[in-house]
Write a structure and sequence with these properties.
This protein is of the alpha/beta class and 171 residues long. The chain contains six helices and nine strands, in the order E-H-E-H-E-H-E-E-H-E-E-H-E-E-H. Strand 3, helix 3 and strand 4 form a beta-alpha-beta unit.
Length: 171
């Protein structure tokens, strides 16, 4: 008495998939692995967890997979310019740490929007951009900033904005 197959939808969303990110990417490193595409085809909301970090390109391949609506969980450390190109959103649980250096306010805001977790930008020692975007970074509670960082603001800056920027850092 053998079991017969039944039609239905597999739901991997509770258990999800946890693996090395490299195993989820195809051999040409230009898209997701066929096995992952098959799982997503059956359950587009499956949670995917990388147990070894990943690159921006790898995370973007998964997020862009046809029919994928699930949550990606991963830990990444990279430059602000690279992390700003993530195509994830605030539903994803990315632990992001920025390397030391300069970050533009636009980059930092994009990185903050790419995860539901707090971004560690404590190593950023210079933030550049328009005064209004720098104020948005200062006010963004999802970005942990260094206590001492320099600011290079462009455009017209009114006195109140200049005072707010000056009060936010000793750099």
């Amino acid at each position: 008495d053998g079991a017969e197959g039944t039609a239905g939808t597999a739901d991997f969303s509770n258990a999800g998939i946890t693996d090395a990110i490299a195993n989820m990417i195809n051999a040409d490193a230009d898209g997701i692995h066929a096995s992952l595409a098959s799982v997503i085809g059956h359950d587009g909301n499956v949670g995917i967890t990388s147990n070894n970090g990943g690159t921006v390109a790898q995370i973007n391949f998964i997020k862009a997979a046809t029919g994928y609506t699930g949550v990606i969980t991963a830990t990444m450390t990279d430059d602000a310019a690279n992390l700003a190109s993530l195509n994830t959103d605030s539903n994803d649980q990315l632990t992001l740490t920025l390397n030391a250096g300069t970050g533009t306010a636009t980059q930092l805001l994009a990185i903050s929007a790419a995860t539901g977790l707090t971004v560690n930008a404590g190593a950023i020692n210079n933030i550049t951009g328009t005064a209004s975007n720098i104020v948005l970074v200062i006010d963004d509670t999802n970005i942990t900033k260094a206590a001492d960082y320099a600011v290079t603001a462009s455009g017209n800056i009114d006195v109140a904005t200049a005072k707010k920027i000056a009060a936010a850092t000793t750099g």
